[in-house]
What does this fold into?
Amino acid sequence: MLSKIKDLAADLAPRLIEIRRHFHAHPELSGNEHQTSAYVAGVLSSCGLMVKEGVGKTGVIGELKGNGTSNLYLGIRTDMDALPIQEATELEFASKIPGVMHACGHDLHTTIGLGTAMVLSQLKEGLGGNIRFIFQPAEEIAKGALWMVEDGVMKDISAIFGVHVFPSIPARCVGIRYGALTSAMDDLEIIIQGEAGHGARPHQAIDAIWICAQVISALQQAISRTQNPLHPLVLTIGQISGGIAPNIIADQVKMVGTVRSLNPEIRENLPSWIKQIVEGVCNTYGAKCQINYCHRLPSVQNNMGLTKIIEKASLEALGEEKVISILEPSLGAEDFAVYLDHAPGTMFRLGVGKSDQHNYPLHHPRFELDESSIETGVVTMAYSAYQYFNH
It folds into this structure.
C-alpha cells in the first residue's frame, strides 16, 4: 500500500502545487472562505466523495467509505482561512487580495487534505474503514472548530488527525511530539478606572495610565516570582487604549491581552491570581478595576497511541532521518484542541523550511514554504490513515 500511495502522490504533485498556488493567490479571511470552500467541494466531488457544504458556516466535509464493517470514521482535519496581512514575498502567485495573505500555511494544509482524499479515493478498496475529511474555517480567530462541532462534524468519529506546517523544520521532514503540542490560550481584558484631572496637577487626579503601567509591571514581576518556572506561563498585553488629550490625566484605560499556559492547574487558578494582583495595585493608588478573563482554547494534547501510529507510518514512509522528535511544546494555540474534547487525536508538524534561504516565521509578511512538502504531507497523512485502520 505504501508504494501505491507514494506513486499516486508523486503523480499528483504538479496538480497539487497548482491547487496550493490558487489558494495562495486567492486567500480569504476567517468566516469568509466562500470561494475556497466551493473549490474544495468541487475537488472532493470529483473524487467521488459524499460532500456537504455550509458546515460550521463556511466549512466543508467529504466522506470516503472504505471496506471496513464499522460505521465510525477517522477524521482528517485541515483549516482554510488566511490572515489580515499584506504579503511581501513577491512570488508570482502572491496574494491578489490587498491586506490578506496565507501567512500560516493554511493554503498548504487545505491542499494536503485534498491530496490525501485524491490518493485514498483511488485506494478505497484496500482501506479498512471510513474517513471524514474536515475542511475547517476560522482557525485564526479560534472559532471555526467550535462551529464545526456544533454542526455535528464529530458525530461517529473515533479518532482525528491534523497537520500544521513548521518553517523551522526542513522540507520533506515531519515533526512528532507526544503529549502537549500547543498551549492553552485565554483572553484577558483589564479596565482601570481612575479620576480625570489637569495634566499639570496630577496630585488632584487618579492617573489611570500610570496605574496601568504599574499593573503591567506587577503582573510580569509576579510571574517570575510566584509561578513555578518549570511550568511555562506567558501573559502579553497587546493593546492599550485610554486618554483623550495630552494635557488631561486619563480617567480610564483598557488593556487587552493573551495568556498562554500548559499546566491545567495553573490555568484554572489564573483568573483569581490576576484579580488579586490587579486589585492590589489599584487599591494602593485609589483606582477601581474590572477584570474579564475568558477561557478560549485548551492545550492540544496528542494521544499516545495515535501519535505512535503517525510516527511509525512516517518512519516507514520517509526514513528515520526525516522524522524529527519535537522536544518542547509550542506556546502558540490551535483550535484543533476543540475536537479533542470529543475524540482522541494527534497533530504532526510538517517541515516546510527551505535550505537555500532564510525562513521567515509563521504570520510574517514574507513567509514562504517549500512546496515539495506537499507530497510529504500527503504521503504521511494517507499512509497514517491506512495504518490507523490496520491497528
Remarks:
- The longest helix spans residues 2-25.
- The first strand starts at residue 50 and ends at 55.
- The mean pLDDT is 97.
- The radius of gyration is 24 Å.
